[in-house]
UniProtKB/TrEMBL annotation:
It comes from the Eukaryota. SUPFAM superfamilies: Ankyrin repeat (SSF48403), Chaperone J-domain (SSF46565). SMART domains: DnaJ. ANK repeats lie at residues 263-295. InterPro entries: Ankyrin_rpt, Ankyrin_rpt-contain_sf, DnaJ_domain, J_dom_sf. This is J domain-containing protein. Residues 426-443 have a biased composition (Basic residues). Pfam families: Ank_4, DnaJ. Keywords: ANK repeat. GO terms for molecular function: protein folding chaperone; protein-folding chaperone binding; unfolded protein binding. Residues 5-70 form the J domain.
């Protein structure tokens, strides 16, 4: 460092006295001490620079003396590594007065040796007023420094508290933001579920409406007698022909504006009222319930009778019994007289036909071969044999007689009704007279009734 730079660092003019340098140094040293500038990382370097400048000026002004303050000397402030306390100021004053005393002694020694050489440059001694003024300034600076440190400590505490509050506020803000995001996510999910539920309900409602419209269209076509549209609607639009409850379904009441007076009327009731036998058979093949009743507690068969449609046929009970291949059932039906003569004749014709023979022979196993013959004997005994059936039977009998002779059946071979005496009804006169009109072809009359082979 140059001398001019040293004066500039201490803030004094070149050629100033030693006292001015000391005063300036003490002021700057107190101001730039690291303990007084804890937040300034360059405080130590600046304090050392001030000490270096002061030592350079002291060497120039008084080469014989060592610097009172500076790096390397015990008690120098730059070597302190602890806190800056009041004892530092006391040591500073002691050093200051000791330096002043040494300077005074050097001045006296020079006075006595003036005759031996030229008079050296001596700084002007400090007066009492200057000393008091300097002491006052130092005390003032010390008090100001203490107050400044106190304010800095308070400010530091406030800053730390503010930082803690900021951290707390930041954490609280983050927590609140997380809660808001969570609530927003829940609301979004809830809104999405509500939207999906509404869409699902709308789709279900649309499907129910479409199904009810298709069903109503089929019923309208049935009431208009358009069986083709009825079949098409049931087949293509998946309308349930066997579904009970009439035209309106349980979920379709709100979609029908013009409701029919009979809510329980089915397609089978409508077809029966129209006398559409083809549609009735088609509906029957699609598993409709013939026993279902309308709003007036009537079945489809009763509706057909009510409207006079005789084309709707009722099943032959005796024919169904013959198809079962159970002689006991056939005997019971004939003995109870719950079928008419026409139904007996119809059963005989069917049993003698090719289709009936196929059915009876198909169901008659080897162990049940005699059941078919017993059924035919019962039918011949209780019913009138048509001429074409009699001729066919005679031809078959003649053909069998050529191959082997078959003995005539005795009256004991005719099966007897397996009915208990308690359940056997008494025959009325009308029943006997009816049998008498039949002659030997009637029930139990004539040789043919017992043998099962009429002679005519």
């Amino acid at each position: 460092m140059k001398l001019s730079e040293a004066y500039e660092v201490l803030g004094i003019e070149e050629g100033s006295s030693m006292d001015d340098a000391k005063v300036a140094y003490k002021q700057i040293a107190l101001r730039t001490h690291p303990d007084k500038n804890p937040n300034n990382p360059d405080a130590t370097a600046e304090f050392q620079r001030v000490g270096e400048a002061y030592n350079l000026i002291v060497k120039c002004l008084d080469p014989s003396s060592k610097p009172s303050f500076g790096c390397g000397r015990p008690g120098c402030p730059c070597q302190d590594d602890g806190s800056y306390e009041e004892e530092d100021y006391n040591d500073f004053n002691d050093l200051f007065f000791r330096d002043l005393f040494e300077h005074f002694m050097r001045s006296n020694a020079g006075y006595f040796s003036r005759r031996s050489g030229p008079r050296p440059f001596r700084p002007k001694p400090e007066t009492q007023e200057e000393y008091q003024e300097r002491s006052r300034r130092l005390r003032k600076e010390q008090l100001e420094a203490a107050e400044r440190r106190k304010r800095e400590a308070i400010a530091r505490k406030e800053r730390q508290a503010n930082e803690r509050e900021q951290v707390t506020d930041s954490s609280e803000t983050k927590r609140l933001d997380a809660e808001k995001r969570q609530k927003a996510k829940v609301q979004e999910k809830k809104a999405k579920l509500d939207k999906e539920r509404r869409l699902s309900e709308e789709r279900a409602r649309a499907l129910k409406k479409k199904a009810q419209e298709n069903r109503s269209a089929v019923f309208v076509a049935a009431r208009q007698g358009d069986s083709v549209a009825v079949k098409k609607g049931i087949w293509e639009n998946a309308v349930d022909a066997a579904g009970g409850g009439g035209e309106i379904t349980l979920d379709g009441a709100s979609f029908v504006m013009n409701k029919h007076e009979d809510a329980k009327e089915t397609l089978l009731h409508i077809a029966a009222s129209k006398g559409d036998l083809d549609l009735i058979e088609w509906l029957d093949s699609h598993s409709v319930d013939p026993e279902e009743r309308n709003g007036h507690d009537l079945t489809a068969a009763q509706i057909a009778v009510k409207h006079g449609h005789v084309a709707v046929e009722c099943p032959n009970l005796l024919k169904l019994a013959v198809q079962s291949c159970q002689p006991e059932i056939v005997d019971l039906i004939l003995y109870k007289e719950i079928v008419s003569e026409d139904e007996i004749t119809e059963a005989i014709v069917w049993a003698s036909s090719a289709s009936g023979t196929t059915v009876l022979q198909g169901k008659a196993f080897q162990t049940q071969a005699s059941k078919t013959a017993d059924i035919m004997k019962l039918l011949y005994r209780f019913g009138d044999i048509p001429d074409d059936v009699r001729i066919s039977r005679d031809n078959e009998t003649a053909a069998r007689s050529k191959t082997h002779r078959t003995p005539k059946a005795s009256p004991e071979e005719v099966p007897k009704p397996k009915i208990s005496l308690s359940s056997k009804p008494s025959h009325s006169k009308k029943h006997l007279s009816r049998n008498s009109r039949r002659g030997h072809h009637g029930r139990g009359g004539g040789q043919s009734a017992h043998s099962g082979h009429p002679n005519h």
